[in-house]
Amino acid sequence: MPWQVKVNPDIPVIETYYIGDLNPDDLNAAVKDTLDLALTHEIRLFLGDCTALAGGHSVFDLYDLARRVSTTCGGKLIKEAIILPEIPAQKESAMFWETTCVNRGLQVRIFADRKSALDWLTAKDRP
User: Is 97:62 a contact under the CB 8 Å cutoff?
Assistant: First the structure.
């Protein structure tokens, strides 16, 4: 499987690791597994580690996925931090994902490293 999903044992965050090529079916299955685990554990914070992501899907796939996430399972209540991929073309895809999600009212932000991503995820929102 080109992805792994787990609950962080120290903080209430679902972590998804994207590895190698994810075709559209793999991408959809990874998101479904992530959201299923989040529902089971009642967690709304997500860390998407894309450092090892190589590709396999298009911006059209990402656009459609953002549309579906924003209209299902409390999409606007989730908060997702994305760690940028190493491959430059995939960095552009991650930035597209962030923009597409933000335009749909989702809290998604990209980061260069894990610490910054987790700091943002776990920061208490100010009133």
Answer: yes
Question: For residue 14, what pLDDT band results from cuts at 50, 70 and 90?
Answer: very high
Strand order through the sheet with 14-21: 3-7, 14-21, 45-55, 79-83, 107-111
Per-residue pLDDT at 73 exceeds 70: no
Nearby residues of 116 by Cβ (< 8 Å), 6 or more positions away: none
Q: What's the pLDDT tens digit per position in 78-102?
A: 899 999 988 888 888 999 999 999 9
Structure tokens at 115: 């610490």
- For residues 31 and 62, the answer to whether their CB atoms sit within 8 Å is no
Phi, psi of 124 (to 5 degrees): -75, 130
Two tokens at 27? 């991408």
Cα–Cα distance, 44 to 90 (Å, whole number): 25
One-letter amino acid for residue 109 of the chain: R
